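Proteins fold reproducibly. Consider a sample protein:
=====
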Amino acid sequence: METLHALSDVLQIAEDWSRDGRGVALATVVETWGSAPRPVGSHLVIDAAGDFAGSVSGGCVEGAVVAEALDVIETGAPRMLEFGVADEIAWRVGLSCGGRICVYVEKVA
């Protein structure tokens, strides 16, 4: 799928997937610092098969967000994710442009 969609498109995709009976999670950028590639309010919608649409980081951390979202879909427990150069996981999953982002992931269907 394309990775960048307008907010209304991402929410429509989430609604369509939910209507199709798929488990769905929504990831939302809630805080940024420095040269974060996506602004606060950017969204990524993920289904239980790992399909996704939208973007929270321009490709820097989408894989990690999708992996966390799959667990959120399964458990129903939302979580806050933080990515940046100061994180202990910065060398595994980080922002190539520097900066920091916080992404809230919640189950929506």
Remarks:
- The beta strands are 24-33, 43-47, 52-54, 79-84, 100-107.
- Residues 62-75 form the longest helix (14 residues).
- The chain has a mean pLDDT of 84.
